[in-house]
Amino acid sequence: MAPPILKLDEISLSFGGTPLLAGASLQVEPGERICLVGRNGSGKSTLLKIAAGMVEPQSGEIFRHPSSTIRYLEQAPDFEGFATVAAYAEAGLGPGDDHYRVTYLLSHLGLTGEEDPKTLSGGEARRAALARVLAPEPDILLLDEPTNHLDLPTIEWLEDELTRSRSALVVISHDRRFLEKVSNATVWLDRGTSRRLDRGFAHFEAWRDQVLEAEELEQHKLGKAIEREEHWLRYGVTARRKRNMRRLGELHDMRARFRGHKGPQGTVQATLSDAQESGKLVIEAEKVTKRYGERTIVAPFSMRVHRGDCIGFVGPNGAGKTTLLKILTGQLAPDSGTVKLGTNLEIATLDQRREDLNPDETLAHYLTDGRGDNLIVNGEQRHVTGYMKEFLFQPEQARTPIRNLSGGERARLMLARILSRPTNLLILDEPTNDLDIETLDLLQEIVAGFAGTVILVSHDRDFLDRTVTSTIAPADPEAPDGRWIEYAGGYSDMMAQRRGAIEERRKAEKTEKAKVDDAPAAKAADKGKGKLSYKQKFALENLPKEMERAEAEIAKREEKMADPTLFTKDPATFNRLAAEMETLRADLTRMEEEWLELEMLREELEG
């Protein structure tokens, strides 16, 4: 086993009251890929900041290998003092680091580098921050929610980039599929302490459940042992004659352990408040379009949404998902076409920007709309502190300003408000941002069991697969042109249907090509010539030479790309060679097929 390059041991930290961290540990070895998991507020981000040297713990030991480099991805990057995104990203490089790496990363992240940091959207800011921490290829990467605000193509690219990277990795994320792809070890932060599983996230949830079951069984055994000892204390003959002080002390210790045991943090318990049933037809859109300047956001698009449907929108950032969603829900007028909303609609919306939150408002005021200490949930009057407990907020937080909440707590608060309102049409725009995995599980159950209609925008593949009945995506995800297609099922179903459509198109193109290629031969046969044309003879004689040249060119590029330092030293050349090889191989395949067809035709004609 390689020695650790980062080790946190018995880390403790408290901000008053219950300690946030109470003996947590984290050990990172070269090349290791660890996912750090735990409930919102369990201290994951704080532990990552301690590892990065940004926060000092109150006690515990920290070891960082002197020669190791560490880069930390901040939730809110600071662009102060940087005129361009490229300048910001290059500031993360160390002596001897390759500046071409910044250009490569910005290009793949959809940025030119010339952008003004002051004008960046949330997704663009996250991409710039990723370029800054990935560029130096550090020994240790500490990533806090790297997929937030990223679209699916970028998330999938990031998965591949991290898989190829030599850096050790500690990552916090709510995206199950992302964690499954990039991790080979799991550290679970729970009630201030940490547990480690030397397997990736795919095995975490089953292991966690086993740990909690064993813990519950141990508590049950301890309770029974206390009952036996108390019985002895009261009725034991020896005990009445002379107290056994050692045994009595052990009983006091057992009682203290039993009372002091903190079970796992509770789960969110909530259901949607049902409104009056909507009409059977919820939304009918007929040939709606939308343009901004020269750009088409929605080409003529038609669809019907029926009561009980759960529809997901996917696509790259800027493709127009939120625009189309607003058109369908009547928040934005189309340039042409019509949208009809059904009857008896009660709409509740969770906005991705959390714009509904006033940072100076208290939690209780936000949940009750300022109407005292009570609210109506499913027709019943509830006290706000009791309702807050169902969403893991403490009663003393009722008078806390929203500005003091973490990102995950804000998302949970908005979810609490939405679920208290009667609704039969639920609009969720990026609902999974900042939610922990357990709260995501609850949201999935609510959406799946909701009797009304749900329309959601999400980049979370696992969430989409578990909830939606159909998926709407751009016809061309690489270059959205306003055309949208509805696919049956979730994200994985959509990808399977796309692959099937691509295969069918390729077969059709190949069949059409074969017809075109066979036409001269058929024409010659019809005329009774019984021989190849001059053009066919020339191709038959010269194609082998052209194939040899193509093979030689491919071999040259393979030899250059075999240099393990090429990508690091000159990524632009590496990418150019890879593109040239792909073109050469496609040409070689085409020439081989053409030569084989001509050779078969020659044999047939010579008979």
From TrEMBL:
The ABC transporter domain, residue ranges: 6-216, 283-524
Residues noted as binding ATP 1 in the record, renumbered to the chain: 38-45
CDD domains: ABCF_EF-3
GO biological process per UniProt: DNA repair
Gene Ontology MF terms in the entry: ATP binding; ATP hydrolysis activity; DNA binding; ribosome binding
Database matches in InterPro entries: AAA+_ATPase, ABC_tran_C, ABC_transporter-like_ATP-bd, ABC_transporter-like_CS, ABCF_ATPase, P-loop_NTPase, Uup, Val-tRNA_synth_C_sf
Binding site for ATP 2: 315-322
Metal-binding as UniProt keyword: no
The name this protein goes by in its record: ATP-binding protein Uup
Organism: Mycoplana dimorpha
